[in-house]
Amino acid sequence: MKTKPRVVLGLSGGVDSSVAAKILLDQGYEVIGMFMKNWHDESVTISNECPWIEDSTDAMLVAETLNIPFQAIDLSAEYQKRIVDYMFAEYSVGRTPNPDILCNREIKFDIFLKAAIQLKADFVATGHYCQKGEIAVDGQPVYQLLAGADANKDQSYFLCQLSQEQLAKALFPIGHLQKSEVREIAKEAGLITAEKKDSQGLCFIGKVRLPDFLQQQLKPKQGNIVEISAQFPAYTPISQVPQEAPQDWDQAQLDAFCLALAYLPTQGKVISEHRGAHYFTVGQRKGLHVGGTGKPLFVIATDTQENVIYTGLGEDHPGLNRFGLFVQNDQVHWIRQDLALKVGEHAVYAARIRYRQPLSKATLIQRENGLYVVFEQAQKGIASGQFAAWYQDKECIGSGTIF
Length: 403
Description:
Layout: E1 6-10, H1 15-26, E2 30-37, H2 52-66, E3 70-74, H3 76-92, H4 99-118, E4 123-125, E5 130-137, E6 140-147, H5 164-168, E7 170-171, H6 179-188, H7 210-214, E8 223-227, H8 251-258, E9 269-274, E10 297-303, E11 308-313, E12 321-328, E13 332-334, E14 346-352, E15 360-367, E16 370-380, E17 387-392, E18 395-401
Parallel strand pairs: 1-2, 1-4, 2-3, 4-7, 8-11
Antiparallel strand pairs: 5-6, 6-18, 8-9, 10-11, 12-16, 13-18, 14-15, 14-17, 15-16, 17-18
């Protein structure tokens, strides 16, 4: 008979999950360490940036030091289907996916969670820098996804697609700690990962040469790089932003600000060529290989059907800025379902469109066709396919895929 609550921990071979295991043991849990082996292709990873064999060995050594059971699980087939194929499909139509967010929703807190339940686990745990809260709404428990205590490491954005059912089974043992404290705990416990550098790159894949990765299925195709003038008349000057509150805007005004991502410039000059519009994303600076421009060029739009990249000169180019974004109804996700907006309702939250971006005040407006997010200040480099997440104080309330 089980006497302690059982936790299956995603033991990655890094310092964060190692310390998570130590904390769970100290808290009285029965801990099983599990290393997730997923899709890996050395032909596209940068040398020595994704040493998964070394990671699995480190994870095993941590388990031995802490005297906990350890096993590995091969999720490569599921990862290929749910994450890698998804990435190829998104890039092929000119959208910019976020595999780390999908990895948490589809792998760590779905496939991995189900495997843990088969081991009769009460919870799964990870080394994410975020926290879990619990409140009662109408007498029922409601779980909160809260920012990590270390503002520089907060990873709540990467978990913005989790559901109440997933949060109910989740533990984040290091979310209340600073990174420096985590390393100190690892050092005191004699863990081999105490001084190990943080991993970088895609979830479970590592740091990759993205063009090489994409060329596995998306073949190079020569096309034009077009420069758009900052004086292009279609750009709406800030002085013309309606003064009334966004929730009072009519449909045409909302579309003008929030569906601008669907807009492609129609005038400009061809300045160079590229090898495939599907290799580029809005806001990208590197990889254009266009010299003699003085200021750096930035991608402001892509057209994968016509295979054209539209660029603007300088980081202050108005084509980089958007005042809002749109999320189709089937892509709107409320972690706090009790706060979900009904058609005609609006709410003011703080939102971000990428990891570590400072939160920015935004009005969320639910209309019949979807959710509009209108920012108080223009946002730079909003890319279709990425995720917007909205917060109330330190709590992530919901998220959605940008149209």
